[in-house]
Every structure is written in structure tokens, then in C-alpha cells.
Amino acid sequence: MYNRAIGFKALMLLSLVMLLSGCVSKPLNPQLQSGVTEEITEKNLPDITAVFKSSGLNNVDIFENWVKDFHESSEYDSNAGFSDADCRMTAMLLAGDSISYTGVEEEYNGDYLMFDIDAIENDERYSVLKEKERLFTTLFGETPIPNGSLSDAFTSIWNKHGICVNSNKFSIISIVFSTYENDKAFVGHTGILIDLKASGCGDGYMFVEKIAFGEPFVFTRLAEPNALVDLFSSRPDYSVSDDEATPLVFNNSELIGQLEKASD
Q1: Per-residue pLDDT tens digits for 70-85
Q2: With contact defined as beta carbons under 8 Å apart, do 207 and 228 qualify?
Q3: Cross-strand partners of 250
């Protein structure tokens, strides 16, 4: 015989478990094939941020505002230009509070982060990143390439400053390029990789990025982290000439591959 009181308690317990899990009750867009990139819109934003919260990412409420602000501004300004966030700012927003380090580069005298820094220092929407500006430029800015090794240039920064992402649910993905003079390395693109299984949100991985200023926030479902190498290699914007160093892909400070150069 059905006991209404027991049934009610069971329903409340189930609701509590779902609430505490912080994740969606079904996979994100099960029809979406692995490797297909999808825009983060105001419609799917609640599902995306539920995964963020379950994975322990930071400043999720601010990220929501950034996404909404982008879509609102895009309605009247199709050339957003450098008026919004980029990939590096997004990665620092979501992961910055989970990064520990023993030191930073005290000065930044490079050129490749000039638009990032201008937005952080002069736009109130991105002022949350001001307190991490030195960590930001240390992680993403130009650094000398020792002995011609692009890989050593990037990992040496992490090792020198004791940089560590304190999470087993997400990591920072970085594409490291050389400058035009081939004497320095810098992070030309970055994003956040979420382990969905570790986060209690299904199988595989979800990569979150903002490809560039003026471009939307997007996510990609992946079977494994190494699939990012093929994803990035397929993007013409990341191709380099034969006389430039081949861009490298890192998961935190671990090298996972290099981009394939586009065939003629």
C-alpha cells in the first residue's frame, strides 16, 4: 500500500540530491556529436552554468553576465571589436581563483596582451580581473624561448612560479605560439576543459572558450582531451607559415600535441 508520507519524503530527498549535485539531469544536447562546437546562448546558458558549478569553476554569475552582455551588445553592434572579453580573460575569470602560485612576473612590457590589459584596466565589466593582472600577464604574456624550445619556454613559467590549477575536474588549455621574431612564446588562445565524469555531468569532456574579441562564447563536447589538437588544427586562424614554430597545445603545463600545419 502506498504511504503518502513516505512518498513525499522520498520525493523531497530526490529533489535535494538533484539540487546538491549542481548538474543537469540529462546530457547537454545528446544529439550533438563529439567535436561539434556550439554557441552558448541565453537559452542553453542555465545548463552550461550548472556544469560550471558542479565542476567548481569560479565567478559563474559574472560569466553569465558576460554572455548576456555579449548577446545584448551584438544586437545593435555587429562589430563589437575589442569592446568585450576574449579567450584569456574568460579562462582567468573561470579558473583564476583555483590557481595557486609562488610568484609572478612583476612587470609586463610586451605587446600581445595590449587589448586584454586595456579592457581589464578601463572597463568596469572586467575589473574583477584587476587583482590577478600580474598572474594574467605571467600566464599568457610573452616569455623568452630558451634554446629554441617553445615547449620549454611555456613550462618554465609554470615551474618558475609554482603555478598549479587546483582541480581534478577542470584544467586550462593553452595554445602556445611564437612571436613573429620567433624569439618569444605567448599564449595565443586558451580555454577551460571540464571533465564531465569527474564533475558528475555525464561522460567525456566539455571545452569552453571565447574564440576572439567580438566572437561568441562557445563549447565543444569531446571524447578525450587530445581531440583538441585536431579541433584547433582545423581552424585556419591558427595556421602558421613554414618559417614559424609549430604552435603547441598544453593541458595545464602538460604538452598534449602540436597543431598540424595546413596543407597547400
Answers
A1: 888 755 454 444 457 9
A2: yes
A3: 174, 255
CB of 94 within 8 A of CB of 192?
yes
Q: What are phi and psi of 170, to 5 degrees?
A: -150, 160
Instruction: Write out pLDDT tens, residues 185-228.
Output: 999 999 999 999 999 999 999 999 998 888 899 999 999 999 99
Q: Between vectors from CA 79 to CA 77 and to CA 82, what angle results, nearest 5°? A: 110
Domain ranges for the chain: 32-258
Query: pLDDT (tens digit, 9 = 90+) per residue, 23-33?
Result: 654 455 444 45
Does the pLDDT value for residue 93 go beyond 90? yes
